[in-house]
Task: structure prediction
Amino acid sequence: MSTVRVRFAPSPTGALHIGGLRTALYNYLYARQRGGTFILRIEDTDQKRYVPGAEEYILESLNWAGITPDEGPGIGGGHGPYRQSERRDTYRKYTQHLLDAGQAYYAFDTEAALEQRRADEKAAGNHNFRYDASTREGMRNSLSLGKEETQRLLDQDTPYVVRLRVDPGQTVHIRDIVRGDVAFQSEEVDDKVLMKADGLPTYHLANVVDDHLMAISHVIRGEEWLPSTALHVLLYRAFGWEKTMPEFAHLPLLLKPNGKGKLSKRDGQQLGIPVFPLDWKPDSTEEKLMGFREAGFLPQSTINFLAFLGWNPGTEQEIFSLPELVEAFDLDRINKSGAQYDFEKARWYNQQYLIASADDELAPLVQQQFADHGRAITTAQATRIAGLLKERVHTLEEFYPQGRYFTERVGITDEKMARKKWKSEQRPAFEELRDRLAALPEWEAAKIKAATVAFMKEHNLGFGAVLPVLRLAVSGTTNGPDAFAILETVGQEETVARLGVGYEAMEELAGRE
Ligand code: GLU
Result:
C-alpha cells in the first residue's frame, strides 16, 4: 500500500486567496482520510514577488481554519527544509544532474538578444517566438556553441540560465483524477528555464524536485496549473523519476457569484464580500482586503462552505464538521466544472453553525464583538445575548448592531411604529405598569410576564397593545427576540428607567404628527 503524502505549496506573494485555502483544505482532508501526511511548503524562490508577512498570513489562516500541517516550516518533519529559499543547494545539485545527463543546457542569450529575436520574428510575421528544438540552434547556448566555447563562457563568468531540453515527438499523458486523461505533445512545450541567472530555480524545477524529494504521492492544486503539468511530466522523465511520479488532481476554478468568469480579488472589494480567510493590510498604502474571520464567520462554517465549492458528498447532507468531511471526502467526487462563489450560501452555513453552537461557546465571541464597539459586557450577559440573537443573525458581526439595545439606550428607532402604537390616553396605565415592574421582587422573564399579563387583564388591554410599547421603549423597535427575555437581560433598574424615557419620547412623537 502506498503512503499518502500531499502538500500545500503556496507562494508568499500576498494574502492567501480563499481558493488557496480550499486547495489546502482538500489536501488536508485527503491526507487525514488516508492516514497520510499533510505538508506545507513555502515556494518563495521568486524574489521579485516576495511579500513580507505573507508566510505568517498563510500559517495564521491554516491555524484559524483548523487545518494544520504535519510537516512544514517551523513544524519540522523528515523532508525539510520546507522553505524553498533554504533549498538552493539542492536545486543546484539537481540542475547539474540534468546538465550532466544532457537533459538540460546552458543558455547565454541576454535579455536584449531575446527581445531582438522576438522583434525580428514578429517583423517576419511570427508572433509566437518560442525557445525550443526548432529555434535553439540559432541561439547562444551550449547545444549550439559546442563544448569548448561553452566552457570558455563559463570560465569568464558569463551570466547564463539553464533550460530544459525538450525533444519533439514525445507524447505526454497526464492521468488526472479530476479531469481524466489529458494528453500533450512535447512540441507544445518550450525549453523552459529551470535555473535563472540569479542562481535561483524557477517554480517548475523547484516544484518537481521537491515533490520528488518530499515523496509526494498526490499533487492536488488549482486548475490553473494544469498546463504546466505537461512540462512537469517531461521533467520527471528527464530526471528518470517517471515511475514514482505523483498522481494529479486539478481542482475546478472558483467563479464569480454570478458565475461569469474567475473569482478575483477585485470581486471582493466590488461586492463587499470577503474572498480571503483573514483581513490583510500589510501597509497603509494598500486597500484593506476583507477576511472571513473579521467579517464574523466561524472557521467551521467557512470550511464547510469551502468544502462544497467543487466537491459534494452525493447525498442531501450539507452540514459537515471537519471530522465528518474527512470521512466523506473523496477525490473522485470533485467536480470538473467551475464552482460558483455563492456568498449567500456562506452566510447560510454560518447561521446554521451559530444556531448549533452552545450559548456559552459563543459568549466570548459575542463579548469580543461588543468590545470592538467599546462596550464591555459580562460573560453572563454575552451568553444571554448569544442565546437570544443567534437565530436572528448570520455572522458574529451582526450581534452588536442587532443587540446594541441590550447595553445602551438607542432611543426610538422605529418612529412610525411608535406613532402607531402609542395612545396618549393610555399613558396613566403604562405608568402604572412601570411602577409594578419597578416593584417586582424577582427580575426574571416569567415573573415579568406574569405581572404584565395581570396588568393587561385589569386594564382590558391585549398583547398587541402592550408588548410593542414595552419593546419600543426598551429596545427602540418592535422586532427582536422574546420581549420579556429582553427586559430580563436589560435589567430591572435600566428597564424601568427606559420605560420612563421611552413613554416621554413616544408621547412627543405622537404629538408631532
Ligand atoms: N507555488 C504554487 C502556487 O503558488 C504551487 C502550485 C502547485 O501546487 O504546484 O500556487
User: Anything to note?
Assistant: The chain has a mean pLDDT of 95. Residues 9-11, 43, 203, 207, 221, 225 surround glutamic acid (CB under 6 Å). The radius of gyration is 32 Å. DSSP finds 21 helices and eleven strands in the chain.
